[in-house]
Fold:
Amino acid sequence: MRRMVEFNRAGMNIDLLHLTTLPDLESFGGISYLSELLSFADVEKLDGTEKLLLDLWKEREKRNILTVAATNNWVIAKVIAELGKINQGKLDDHTSIQQALVDIYEAPWAPARFS
Structure:
């Protein structure tokens, strides 16, 4: 992660070619491991995957709300209000993945292993 942030700040692409130039490549699993990781990357499917994950989360939250509502005998208005909050999440109001990873890497609470 640190190397990818350094590459990003230096204006370099974060790709397999640049990662193979790392002097300690074997400590990252070697070229075969990085190639394997790359085979799972599919930017074009990212939006679909994000929507699928959001839909699954919404369904799980709906079930949780309905369970709590039934257990605590909520009034219908409260149930509807809580269910409405689930749909307030949007798919187009997010940070880029690259920026999110940098933010996580630089977070003050990040474990020492990332520094």
Remarks:
- Helices lie at 2-9, 16-19, 30-40, 46-72, 76-86, 97-106.
